[in-house]
Amino acid sequence: LLTTAGYEVVGVESAENALRLCEEGERFDVIISDIEMPRMDGFGFAAKVRESENWRETPLVALTSHVSAKDEERGRRSGFQRHVPKLDHNLLLKAIADTLNSKKDVA
Q1: What is the DSSP code string of 65-96?
Q2: Is the distance from CB of 97 to CB of 9 less than 8 angstroms?
Q3: Residue 61 to residue 95: CA distance in whole angstroms
Q4: What is the pLDDT of residues 86-95, one digit of tens each?
Q5: Fewer CB atoms inside 10 A, N or C side of the chain?
């Protein structure tokens, strides 16, 4: 979906692999993470990202089947700027575009 929409995508199989990219100094315009992952959930991943020097300011989008207000608030406290239901492709594309546009406005 994202590649078809014109985005360059780097996919990883786990939060640990993503954090390894962080340690290696990789930079991204936005990070999209699932909430439900083995070993480290998305909330834990977001907290680790926010602790890192390299990705602290990188926007985070949660992609999840947990869409309650409570889940969304927990996501915000963990460091996610956006919370998108997994199957809502249009909302995901809009969230990415909005996130990138707001990042440009700040720069």
Answers
A1: S--SHHHHHHHHHHT-SEEEETT-HHHHHHHH
A2: no
A3: 8
A4: 888 999 999 9
A5: C
Query: What span, in angstroms and rounded, lies between the C-alpha atoms of 6 and 55?
Result: 23
The mean pLDDT of 79-105, rounded to a whole number, is: 87
Structure tokens at 100: 């990138």
Residue 2 and residue 93: Cα distance in Å, rounded?
A: 8
Nearest C-alpha neighbor of 16 from the set 59, 61, 49, 64 = 49
DSSP secondary structure of 17-55: HHHHHHHTT---S-EEEES--SSS-HHHHHHHHHH-TTT
CA contacts within 13 A on the Cβ side of 2? 12
For residue 10, the cross-strand partners are none
| Half-sphere exposure for 22 (CA within 13 Å, toward CB) | 21
